[in-house]
Design a protein that fits this description.
Helices cover 60% and strands 4% of the residues. The protein is mainly alpha-helical. It is built from eleven helices and two strands. It folds into two domains: 111 residues, no CATH class; 131 residues, no CATH class. The radius of gyration is 26 Å and the shape is elongated. Helix 5 crosses helix 6, helix 7 packs across helix 9 and helix 9 packs across helix 10. The longest helix is centred in the middle third of the chain and has 30 residues.
Length: 299
């Protein structure tokens, strides 16, 4: 990250200068909160007001001024005196530059600051995502934070659903911590009815017929409506759809128990999922014929 940003900063006296401060801001971005100097705080505040200016001028950047202001609050402890000082410093610097170089030059300068700051925050987010996406939970599957990071980075919420229904083919234990199931409910609400149409049949049928979160009525309504829509398209009755979902879940559970059958997909970590004893994960097998039925046992 260091060295990428070449933000032109100007002295307090108003004399134009060209000082490379990329390394400085890069250090600030990676430093612990509340450890920034007043000059560092000024840099972050300048990012915030530059990003706001760019947005007002219609420049589409992936980072908003709110991200920089939140960072400013972290490193200053939301000290009002430091904010007032930073605002006065940036106002004075920009006014001096405008007087010496003109309004158009100031516009170009502020837009370049906004672009540089946006690039740095994007790089920081990508670095954090790479760290978060390797996190596992106590059961050996990707944590809710890792799944959220993947969904945010790629926009592929359906792949997160595929991952969860693969490793939890019969849903989640309602009496155990359920962070990843709750995340799944949040993602369903975020993508809405239109987004759910792009999710796989395996994901929709499993989520609609099994428990994946404790309480999320909007998510429940959305996924069940999509489940019913697919049943109509496939001309399936409720019983037929549930049998299809059960067979698919049995198949996923069998594959997950095989040591040589890792999850196939962009989220796979190459490790088969084996529930811990007492985890509450129940595996069911369905038999057909006159003596058929479903036998379930805890793994």
């Amino acid at each position: 990250m260091a060295g990428r940003l070449t933000m032109r900063h100007f002295s307090r006296t108003g004399t134009a200068g060209a000082v490379v401060l990329g390394a400085s801001l890069a250090v600030v971005l990676s430093a612990p909160p509340a450890n920034a100097s007043t000059e560092d705080a000024d840099l972050i505040y300048e990012c915030a007001v530059a990003l706001e200016y760019a947005a007002d001028k219609g420049t589409g950047l992936p980072v908003t001024s709110g991200r920089a202001m939140a960072h400013f609050g972290e490193v200053t402890g939301n000290d009002p005196a430091l904010r007032k000082r930073a605002q006065q410093t940036i106002d004075a610097t920009w006014n001096d530059y405008r007087k010496e170089n003109g309004r158009d030059a100031l516009d170009r300068y502020v837009r370049s600051v906004a672009q540089d700051c946006s690039d740095l925050y994007v790089e920081l987010a990508e670095r954090d995502s790479a760290d978060a996406e390797g996190q596992l939970n106590s059961q050996g599957t990707l944590s809710a934070a890792a799944l959220r990071s993947f969904a945010t980075r790629t926009g592929d919420y359906g792949e997160v659903a595929n991952y969860l229904v693969y490793y939890y083919p019969y849903g989640k234990d309602l009496f155990q911590p359920n962070e990843d199931g709750d995340l799944l409910g949040q993602l369903i609400v975020e993508v809405g009815a239109a987004g759910l149409r792009r999710w796989s049949d395996e994901a929709i049928y499993a989520i609609a017929t099994k428990h994946y979160w404790q309480y999320n009525p909007p998510a429940t309504r959305l996924v069940f409506a999509e489940y019913q829509r697919r049943m109509r398209v496939k001309r399936q009755s409720e019983a037929e759809a549930q049998r299809w979902a059960q067979r698919a879940a049995d198949d996923r559970a069998q594959k997950a128990r095989q040591a040589n059958a890792p999850y196939v997909g962009s989220l796979g970590n190459g490790k088969p999922y084996r529930p811990k004893q007492g985890s509450g994960v129940v595996v069911c097998t369905t038999y057909t014929g006159y003596a058929g039925g479903t036998v379930c046992k805890e793994e």
